[in-house]
Automatic annotation (TrEMBL):
Coiled coil: none annotated. This is Replicative DNA helicase. Residues 191-457 form the SF4 helicase domain. It comes from the Bacteria. The keyword Nucleotide-binding applies. InterPro entries: DNA_helicase_DnaB-like_C, DNA_helicase_N/primase_C, P-loop_NTPase. It comes from Streptomyces nymphaeiformis. Gene3D superfamilies: DNAb Helicase, Chain A, P-loop containing nucleotide triphosphate hydrolases. One of its GO terms (biological process) is DNA replication.
C-alpha cells in the first residue's frame, strides 16, 4: 500500500460500496473525541467499541485520544497533541498505517460537533453489526459447502458464533443501589409464586429454597451410581412440567426415551415399573384406572425429552434458545454432567470446569434454572457412614464454585440392605448460596421409580 493513498482527502479515503460502513459517522466520532476527550468514557459506558471504526485513520485518532487524555494540559492544542501521539504509535510499530497530518487533524477539530457523538456511535455500531452478519453468512456458506460439514455440531457452532454478531453493551449492567430498592421491598411483602419459582415436588425442599428453584440458578445433584439420581431428576421434571405446567427440557445422555417414558408413567400413575416392562399392567384393574386418570396430564405436559447421547454446550445452547423462544422454557435438567462432550482443554479437570461455567452462564443468560446431575467419586465408600460430601464431586472445584445449590443424594439401604432406614433417602443440601443448608429426608419408592415426601407414604 503506497503512502500516496494517505495523501488523499479523508472524505475520499474509502470509496463508497467497498464495504459496509458509515465513514462520515466515523469522521464525526474522531473529531468529537478530540474536542471532548470525556466522550471516550461516556460512549464506552453506552457500549460503544472503537474496534467497530473501520477507517484506520479515525480509529487511531480515537486510540491516540485515549492515550493522552489524562495528561492533556489546559490550553494545549488538541490536534497537535494527537498528532504527536500518532507519530509515537507509528515510530514504535504499533500503527501500521500512515497517520493523519497535523493540518488534517486541525480541520477535523474545527468540524467537531460533540453533541452528535452519540448518534454517530450508534450509526457506526449498527454498520459494524451488519458487517459481522455478512461475514457470518459467508462463513456459514463455506461451512455448509465443506466436505467435512457435520450438522450435529456445525449448526450449533454457527448459532453460537451468530450470538457474537451483537456485542453486549454495558449501559444496563451498572446501576445504583437505590434502583433495586423498590424490587426488594416488593419481594419482602410478596410471597413467591409459580411465576418466579419452580416447585421441586418436595415440601421441605420448597420451604428451604423459599418456594423452589429460581431463575438463573445452577443446581447440582450429586450421587454415587445406583443411588437414583436419574429417578430424582425425572421427579423434578415431573413436578415442574406435569404437576405445574412449567416448560421443562430433560437431556438424557444415558437413558433412552422408552425407559424415561416407563419411569414417568410408573411414578405418576403409581403403576409398578416392572409390570410396565413385563407388559402385565392390564391384569391390574386399579392400575389401569390410575393410568387412565393420569394419562391426559402426562400427555399434555410441556416436558421435552432428548435422549441423544452426544451433547455439547453449543448443541444444548441452541436447543435451549429454541425452546425459550417457542415454548417459554424455564427448567433444564441434564443427566449427567460427566457424560457431556467437554471442550478441548489441557486436562479433564479444566474441560469440566469450562462445562460447569458455561452451564451457569446458560442459566443466567436465558433466565432459566439449570439442574445438572453429577456423579460422585468413591469418597463415600471410604467413610464409615458412607455419607457423601460436596468435595466428592468429580472435578469438584469448579462445579462447587459455579453451583448456587448442591444437593447430595444418599440412601443407607444402597449399602446395607437390612438398614433400619430402608426405603428412606437423604437430600443433603451441602451448598445453598444465600440460604441455609439442611438434610431433608424423603421416601424412596423404587418400584414406582420415584422419591416422595415422607408425609405422602
Amino acid at each position: 500500500m503506497s503512502d500516496d493513498m494517505w495523501e488523499a482527502p479523508l472524505d475520499d479515503q474509502l470509496p463508497a460500496g467497498d464495504y459496509i460502513a458509515d465513514v462520515e459517522a466515523e469522521r464525526i466520532l474522531a473529531a468529537a473525541v478530540m474536542a471532548r476527550t470525556d466522550l471516550v468514557d461516556d460512549l464506552a459506558v453506552q457500549g460503544f467499541d472503537p474496534a467497530d471504526i473501520t477507517t484506520d485513520r479515525y480509529r487511531w485518532i480515537w486510540f491516540a485520544v485515549e492515550e493522552i487524555r489524562a495528561s492533556l494540559q489546559p490550553g494545549s492544542i488538541r490536534w497537535e497533541a494527537v498528532e504527536r501521539q500518532l507519530q509515537a504509535f507509528r515510530a514504535d510499530g504499533r500503527m501500521p498505517t500512515v497517520p493523519a497530518t497535523k493540518d488534517e487533524l486541525a480541520q477535523l477539530y474545527i468540524e467537531a460537533t460533540p453533541a452528535s457523538a452519540s448518534w454517530a456511535a450508534d450509526r457506526v455500531t449498527k454498520k459494524a453489526i451488519a458487517a459481522r452478519l455478512v461475514a457470518h453468512g459467508h462463513a456459514a456458506i463455506n461451512l455448509a459447502r465443506s466436505a467435512a460439514f457435520d450438522p450435529d455440531t456445525d449448526i450449533a457452532a454457527a448459532q453460537l458464533e451468530l450470538d457474537g454478531v451483537i456485542r453486549q453493551g454495558t449501559d444496563e449492567e451498572t446501576i445504583q443501589v437505590g434502583d433495586v430498592l423498590e424490587g426488594v421491598l416488593t419481594r419482602a411483602v410478596t410471597p413467591p409464586t409459580a411465576d418466579d419459582r419452580i416447585s421441586t415436588g418436595f415440601m421441605d425442599l420448597d420451604s428451604l429454597f423459599t418456594g423452589g428453584w429460581a431463575a438463573g440458578q445452577m443446581v447440582v445433584i450429586g450421587a454415587r451410581p445406583a443411588m437414583g439420581k436419574t429417578t430424582l431428576g425425572l421427579g423434578l421434571a415431573r413436578a415442574a412440567a406435569v404437576r405445574n405446567g412449567i416448560p421443562t427440557l430433560f437431556e438424557s445422555l444415558e437413558m433412552g426415551r422408552d425407559e424415561i417414558g416407563n419411569s414417568i408413567v410408573s411414578a405418576e400413575a403409581r403403576v409398578a415399573l416392572h409390570h410396565i416392562k413385563l407388559g402385565i399392567v392390564g391384569d391390574d384393574t386399579a392400575a389401569v384406572q390410575r393410568l387412565a386418570k393420569r394419562g391426559p396430564a402426562i400427555q399434555a405436559a410441556p416436558l421435552f425429552i432428548n435422549d441423544n447421547a452426544f451433547l455439547t454446550m453449543p448443541i444444548l445452547r441452541a436447543r435451549v434458545r429454541h425452546l425459550v423462544r417457542t415454548a417459554g422454557l424455564r427448567l433444564v435438567i441434564v443427566d449427567y454432567l460427566q457424560l457431556m462432550q467437554a471442550p478441548k482443554a489441557e486436562n479433564r479437570q479444566v474441560a469440566v470446569s469450562e462445562l460447569s461455567r458455561q452451564l451457569k452462564l446458560l442459566a443466567k443468560e436465558f433466565g432459566i434454572t439449570v439442574v445438572v446431575l453429577a456423579q460422585l467419586n468413591r469418597g463415600p465408600e471410604q467413610r464409615t457412614d458412607k455419607k457423601p460430601m460436596v468435595s466428592d464431586l468429580r472435578e469438584s472445584g469448579s462445579i462447587e464454585q459455579d453451583a448456587d445449590i448442591v444437593i447430595l443424594l444418599h440412601r443407607e439401604d444402597a449399602y446395607e440392605k437390612d438398614s433400619p432406614r430402608s426405603g428412606e433417602a437423604d437430600f443433603i443440601v451441602g451448598k445453598h448460596r444465600g440460604g441455609p443448608t439442611a438434610t431433608i429426608t424423603a421416601a424412596f419408592q423404587g418400584h414406582y421409580a420415584r422419591f416422595v415426601d415422607m408425609a405422602a407414604t
